[in-house]
Amino acid sequence: MQAKEIKKDIYWVGVKDWNLREFHGYATPRGSTYNSYLIMDEKITLIDGVKNYMSSEMVARVKSVTDFSKISYLVVNHVEMDHSGNIPEIMKLAPQAVIITDNAGKMALEAHFDTTGWNYHIVTTGENISIGKHSLTFMTTPMLHWPDSMMTYVKEEKLLFSNDGFGQHLASEALFAHEYPLDLVINEAKSYYANILFPYGAQAEKALNTAGSLGLDIEMIAPSHGCIWSGKDEVNTILNLYAKWASGKNEGKAVVVYDSMWGATAKMAETIMAEFQDAGIPVTKHCLTIENVSEVMVDFLDAAYICIGNPTLNNQLFPRVAGFVTYMKGLAPRNKKALAFGSYGWKPGVVKQIQQIYEELGWQTVTPFECKYTPKDKVLIELRERVQELIKL
Ligand code: FEO
Predict the structure, then answer these.
(1) 55 with 118, same domain?
(2) How many CB atoms lie within 10 A of CB 8?
(3) Are 94 and 177 in the same domain?
(4) For a designed S-S bond to 288, which of 22, 225, 304, 320 qualifies (C-beta 3.0 to 4.6 A apart)?
(5) Atom 2 of ligand 1, residue of closest alpha carbon
C-alpha cells in the first residue's frame, strides 16, 4: 500500500473500490475510487478522507510517506461519507490536526460524527493559507452538490483538488486520465455529471466563474473520484464539457425510455424512434427491463426531446417506469420537449402521471398518447403524427 507521487511532494493516498457496482441507484460498472491526497511541506496537509470500510488502505498509504502524528491540517472539502467516512479514524491517529473546512462543512461533520476535541480553521472563498512552500486557496461551491462542498487550489503547482467536481466513478490502475482510454474517462465523467450534478448546473456555472474571478490558473485537476486531469489539454477538455453541461444546452437529440409487459409499449417506442430517425433526429432507445436508470440519464444531457412510455399495471405506473421518473425528476433536466405514451387494458389515464412530472419540470409537452392493448397500424400512424407535433414545438 504505497502512496503515489502526482507532483513533487504531493501524493495520491486514496483507495480503489474495484467491486462497487451501485452508488445510490447509480450503476457503477467500472467501480469507483475515493481519492485522498497528501502534501508534504512544513505543515503536512491531508486532503479529504475515504469510505470507512477502506480506511486501512488509505492509512497504510499515508504511513508509507509520513506518520500521522506529523500531520498539521486535514482539509475537508465535502462531508458525504465516501470522503468523510474514515475522518473519525484519521482524527484518532492525528488528534493534533486542524480541520480546514467551511462553515457548512463544520456543521455537517458535527451532524455526522462525535467531533469532541476536533479543532477547526473555517475558510471562505478566496482565503489563502500558507503551509510552507505551498499555499492553499479555497473556493466554496455550495450545493455542488451538498451545502458543504468546496475545492482547494495549490497555486505553486496550478493544481485544483476538486472533490466531486470533474470526478468519475472509475477504478483502474491509471492515476491520470491519459493513462486510460480518454474517451472512457470522459464518458464516466459525463455519467457522473448526469447522475450527480445534473440538478446543479447553475452552481457549476457559478463555480467556473468564481475560479475565473480568483484567477486560478489550472494545469491539473485532482478530483476525489476517478482519474486526474493533467495538462492544459485535458484540463480544458473537462472544463469546457462542464461549461456545456452546466449551461443546459443540448445537442437536439431524442431519447425514448420505456418498459413493456406484452410488447405494446415496446412497439410504440420503436415507432417513435422510427419517426425521429425519419426526421433526421439522432435518437436512442432505452428499455428499463435491461438498463439501469443511470445509463439512461447520460443521454438526457444531449437530448431536446424526451418520450417516456409506460405499460399500465394495476392502474398504476409500471414500477420500473415509476422508479425512473422519480429518479429523473430529482435530477431536474431543463429545456426539454416531451411526450408521455403508454398502453393499458381496461382503464386509461395512468400516463397523466408522467405528463404531470413533465409539467413540474417546466418542459414543453404535447398531449399524452395512450393505446388500448396492442397498437394497430392506424394507432401507430396517429402516434407518428403526435411525434411530428412534438418535433414542431
Ligand atoms: Fe463523492 Fe458527494 O460524494
Answers:
(1) yes
(2) 9
(3) yes
(4) 320
(5) 80
Q: In the structure, what pLDDT confidence band is assigned to residue 86 with cuts at 50, 70 and 90?
A: very high
Task: Check residue 80 and give its pLDDT.
Answer: 98
Looking at 247, 275, 295, the residue that finishes a domain is 247
Q: 169 CB less than 6 Å from ligand 1?
A: no
Q: Which domain holds residue 378?
A: 254-392
Compute the distance between CA of residue 230 and CA of residue 166 in angstroms, rounded to an integer: 12
State which ligand 1 atom lies nearest to the alpha carbon of 145: 2
**Residues 239 and 358 placed together within one structural domain of the fold:** no
To the question of pTM greater than 0.70 for the whole model, the response is yes
CATH code of the domain containing 151: 3.60.15.10
Give 151-188 as a DSSP string: EEEEGGGTEEEEETTT------S-SBGGGS-HHHHHHH
Same domain? 303 vs 213 = no
Model pLDDT, residue 388:
98
Gap between the Cα atoms of 323 and 239, Å rounded = 32
- What pLDDT does 22 receive? 94
pLDDT band of residue 342 (cuts 50, 70, 90) is: very high
CATH number of the domain where residue 323 is located: 3.40.50.360
Cα 146 to averaged position of ligand 1 atoms, centre (Å): 8
* Dist. CA 349 → ligand 1 center (Å): 39
**The residue type at 303:** A
Q: What is the pLDDT of residue 33?
A: 98
User: Of 198, 224, 247, which closes a domain?
Assistant: 247
Number of domains in the chain: 2
Q: Which residues are catalytic?
A: 24, 78, 80, 82, 145, 164, 192, 225
